[in-house]
Queue: 4 jobs
Job 1
Amino acid sequence: MSIQEISLNDLNPTEFIEAQCRLISKQVGKSKAVNALSGGVDSSVTTLLAHRALEDRLLTYFIDNGLMREGEPEFVVSGMKQLGVQVELVDARQEFFSALKGKTDPEEKRQAITDTFYKNVFGRLVKESGAAYLLQGTIYTDVEETVAGIKRQHNILAQLGIDTKAAYGYTVIEPLIRLRKSGVRAIGKALGMPKDMYHRVPFPGPALGARVIGEATPKRIALVRKATVVVEDVLSAIDAFQYMAILHEDRVTGIRDGKREYGFQIEIRCWDSRDAVTASPTQISFELLRKMADRITSEVPGVVSVTYNITPKPPSTIEAL
Ligand code: XMP
């Protein structure tokens, strides 16, 4: 891999910010850049960095792909507004669900999300705005796992030999590509971001699409979204790297109100990790685990089984897909 990592120890946030602002401004020149904000730590830091470098030459979009968490589009747009960044919300829910229809293979689902995002939605936005560049928050870990063939992270393009100019009509700028998550957080802090934004729990590009095993239909996404509300509500009180709810494809026999119910299974994962390269399951108290199980089985219709993953990464990965 030809990209040189900058470790947290070697990172000087002030110098990094100044250097990246100069580079971004020089590359974009008098043109415009479109910015893909997902609301995660990496894309939020990229947004503030690029906003500082480009001001009104930057057009920031938040794509509602239908796979977001409860209330996420409104939360992200208003959070950025408070930091002085105007964000346009684009409703692309139908487009993503059509692309995902009938797909059950994890890598095919990731590919469908990537194509819809870069080719269709951003291809169109870039063309309409007359921009020549797309800014995005790819980080070192994303490249590493994709190049190693573990998972195709949705935001990896050039490193897979994709010429974005030829394929999509724009050049991609990735200012954070030499950093890992801890470095990205240090940059967010130095940019004056509130802690709840630079310290936000990581969330994957393919969003809840990566947390539904099997077909990601609007109904199944709505189900895992409801379970996610419970898991995030209960686990935000503990200091873990990341936590999530996953909807399984297999159903199991349960019993409710004295009747058989062939229902859904939700798996909870919660991780301790420094940089997502390796991770271990958090030792959650049995009381908290039971609390989540009780709430999920009563608040999420049709769920009759809740499990907790106790496998470290490796051999597990953090997300299920
Ligand atoms: P895995 O599941 O590979 O996840 O152990 C490592 C970290 O990366 C996040 N993740 C993604 N982030 N695009 C992203 O921007 C993706 O396609 C993607 N897939 C996984 C995951 O949430 C974890 O923090």
Job 2
Amino acid sequence: MGEVLLLNKTSHAKRRQLVVGNWKMNGNQHSNAELLAQIVAGWQGEHSADVVVCPPNPYLIPTYDIIAGSPVLLGAQNVSQYDVGAFTGEVSAQMLAELHCKFVIIGHNERRRLQGETDEQVAQKFMAVQRANLIPILCIGESLAQRENGWHLEVIRRQLEAVFAHVGRDVFANAVVAYEPVWAVGTGKTATPEQAQEVHRFIRSQLGGLAEEVRILYGGSVKAGNAEQLFAIPDIDGALLGGASLDAEEFLKICKAAD
Ligand code: PGA
């Protein structure tokens, strides 16, 4: 990693590091309980980083029962853009708040790609999450083809603009951004420190007056073996994890690297 990248990590010590485990559609009651027991045992007391687990919705209550009283926080993987009504199968942000969620992942690339979620819907979800006083974790990132064509910053700009158009920039005081290059999610490929820093700096530059305050996570094949190097990058404030969040030892190593 270039020296420049390491220079001013301490200058934004005010941004609390954040590690979020997105379990996706994995686990069962038994395996979740084991995983959580180990996470809670390994993450007690005071820390300088926040740790969040996002189980599938049916496991929100049993998860909360295990993490309650520990510093581990609860999040959800998705939410409806609507507050109430005839939306079969959907879950509102208010319901998630009632179940002790603090964070909600929105705009994950699996939902954008596989469920056809649009920038517009993601913006609506962002607002719904904030209406319930929860913190949206807004995922953005380019595809491999977009990266290869050199369009990555333009894609990021468009994804952010879609949200700014509805809510402005000031509401990012209570939001988290996660940069997840689609080509790095679940593939074992990670952005180089230079690639990640370029995009994280760019995202910050789009956030106006809040540029230095908003937490910007990196996601995409983060593992215990590369976490420290990524967390040393000035504009990276933690990680959004998929695979690595399903293994307690791996997950805790990454949380400790952020701490
Ligand atoms: P991964 O997933 O860590 O398995 O690449 C990241 C994500 O989907 O948020």
Job 3
Amino acid sequence: MLDGDYGRAAQKAMQILVALGKIYGAERMIPVSSVQIAGVSYDNLGEAGLQFLDEMAQGGGRARVLTTLNPAGMDTENWQVLGISPEFAERQQKVIDAFARMGVMTTCTCTPYLVGNLPHFGEHIAWAESSAVCYANAVLGARTNREGGPSALAAALTGVTPDYGFHQDKDRLPDATVQVDATVVENDDFGALGKAAGEALRKGGFSVPYIAGLEGASVENLKSLCASLATYGGIALFHMPGITPEAAGLAPPGKVITISQGDLDLVRQSMNDAQIGEVDFVSLGCPHLSIREIARIAELLEGKRVTKEFWITTARPTKQIADRLGYTEMIEAAGAKFAADTCCVVAPIKGRFQAMATDSAKACYYAYAKNGFRTFLLPFDQVVEAALR
Ligand code: F3S
């Protein structure tokens, strides 16, 4: 591939991976079984990114393993309803088409593990969405570094990745214990925990926490925690006794960071810089919603009418299940909008709203940093109530 025998795109891809391997001291390439590509929204990529993808497609680039895409900047079927301009939609579609020409599944979701890209324990993969990377490493026990857009695409086009970091046993051991002495039940609690722990871990220079003190966590709780730990602490792997698969047999590290109820309250206050009466945008689905969460929204909205712009962000296949189960009809009858394939962060909505209510600590960070919205972090059901208020 490096010699160009497999075409220009594979050669370029292998050059990227060899350079990366040299930087991190990898001694070999290893095969990967799946890839998740981030950097899909035209809002982030711009013309230069689109041109790079076009060149890779024209150069014969072809995914050699199962490859899925992160959210795009719009709902690919329903973008007009979300207020996306035709100019943006045209450029975004070109991005998706370029990936499709390379044989990439155009699922456009940050929860590929909910819609068919589900690696098993110990499998080597190359994923590039920080929340999904953390979920794959910690919850599934698969092995991936936190890839960037170009290195993930390169892994897709070659089927390999340099063997370093989280692919190796030695880098998967915990280096700090996070002792949770607080009530952590709902997604927003897990998000607040991810922020409090993530910031403390980053400050201490730790990268693989052993999180103790939690009795249970649902898939939805864990995806919220993963998103928040990755956002606020750059964490790509954690262990949680009784919950994550590699925790068994690990000793808790001696360095202990305690997270108290007071710590979580403070963190929550830091994300609540709006008043509830100021909220003019409501969004659930960061990371993308599961079908169980969509069912709950439908239940809460049945027979009611929302008064705010309310986005339900999820993967297209999950939306299709919601269609068949009648949830879509109930939700849309209440005036809420499905935003499949996209999310409130990667869509081009900068400055369009004043204040957003959400249950996601990650969404709070980017809503402010990227789109300039003030935020209100609430439990899931109360987010829906905020849309009705
Ligand atoms: Fe997913 Fe968008 Fe949140 S990509 S993790 S819903 S910022």
Job 4
Amino acid sequence: MDGKPAAVDRYGVMGYPVSHSRSPVIHRLFALQTGENLQYELLQVAPSKLETAIRQFQRTGGKGLNITLPHKSEVTRLVDDLSERANSSGAVNTLVFRDKEIFGDNTDGIGLMRDLVGNLGLELKDASILILGAGGATRGIIGPLLDAEPKSITIANRTLSRARVLAEHFSASGPVTACRFREVKPSSSFDLIINATSASAKGELPPYPESAVTDRTFCYDLSYGLSPTPFSSWAARKGAARSVMGWGMLVEQAAESFDLWRGVRPDTQKVLEQLEISA
Ligand code: ATR
């Protein structure tokens, strides 16, 4: 023992912009709870500086990073090794620095599943699922949802061609179809509707298919806020059985990253309570 304090392991989240990110608070609560000695930084990095910033963080002793918008897809090109789930979703949200190698993983899908099944108690086997939106967020969640063996997944999107590309990509793995919002059949009703458009985050309320919601439909918005998002208010107004924002997914995906880095799984319920938001 040389009496020097142990160097603190560095982690952080890189995005652009990133000031709104809750990840530093969540990871600090995880660290306090588990007694792990680490620091977690907020790193605003423009797309043109991404590669340099990641390499510099690694060179200066960084152990791992979360990657958020708009970098999640670009980062897949910068890693030495990609997990199966990151490869399938075409996006990385977690980097682990191992010696000189960079490992890229994606914990968003498993984070959603832990919230839907573990926290909220949904039974997804044989469920009819409607996903609104066909961007990166949708691509990241279809694989894990199909693993739960639903009866069907319908992807509805403003731009039909994007929904079709995703449906074709995943159709070998399960029953996935594509349509426009207005083509969701009036008679259809769904067990679960997931809003994966970026509309809520922008405060917009697109003409979502009203007839898809019944009093047995569970509605989940991947977006979250301190007050209800436009989608979650819309779903509640339409009489959904429940309308929930994505706070649980946010904390669950963070817990998966923390586990990858530290080999310790935090108690997510406690942290959800500490954040004082209603899930
Ligand atoms: P992300 O990675 O967050 O999914 P993205 O790839 O830009 O971001 O995808 C955003 C999704 O939200 C798309 O499905 C987009 O619809 P289009 O494919 O038609 O562009 C959808 N979206 C965003 N704003 C919307 C709005 N106001 N109305 C309807 N759909 C919207």
